[in-house]
Amino acid sequence: MYADIMNRAPLFVIAHNVRSMYNIGSFFRTCDAMGVQKLYLTGHSPAPTDRFGRKEGRIAKTALGAEQSVVWEQHEDIFTLIEKLKKEGVTVVALEQDKRAIDYRAFVHADPVVIIVGNETEGIAPTVIAECDVVIEIPMRGSKESLNVSVAMGIALSHFLPPPPLSPPPVLP
């Protein structure tokens, strides 16, 4: 299965203004598990290392080494990054509750794709959403309006996994 994930068109993630280092560490682990080609950290999102190359322990604690296996870049300006990715033919998708949003399961994508996730309490700013090609959301059935951002990202990324191989039906006695 790992070969299937690595052979498909690129899938990227932008974590924009995500404040929790534990969420960033979780993003690294999930990106590794889902075969994400690159994780972009934008705005105020912390990086696994500081400008002196020192490791951030809280990210490393949650990432469990994935911060070393997932390719990542830090960009202060998300708008410049979005413009660059669009020029490269990447479909820009916001994961957010918004009037434009469609159910993530209904999104039929053309690779490559970048998924943007936002701040834990404020979400993705309307100015960023306006630059996105598509907005997807995860339907909520309970009393809460939203999920933790790292959980939501994992659910959304699972939509981009290749389908499982067809198995022969079990033989009944």
Q: Explain this structure to me?
A:
By secondary structure, the chain is of the alpha/beta class. The model is unreliable at 1-6 (pLDDT under 50). The chain has one domain (2-158): SPOUT methyltransferase, trefoil knot domain (Alpha/beta knot), CATH 3.40.1280. The relative contact order is 0.20. The chain has helices at 2-7, 21-34, 57-63, 66-69, 78-87, 126-129, 149-158, and strands at 11-16, 38-42, 72-75, 91-95, 102-103, 113-117, 134-137. A seven-stranded parallel beta sheet has the order 3-2-1-6-4-7-5, with helices on both faces. It is built from seven helices and seven strands, in the order αβαβααβαβββαβα. Helix 2 (21-34) runs parallel beside helix 3 and helix 2 runs parallel beside helix 7 (149-158).
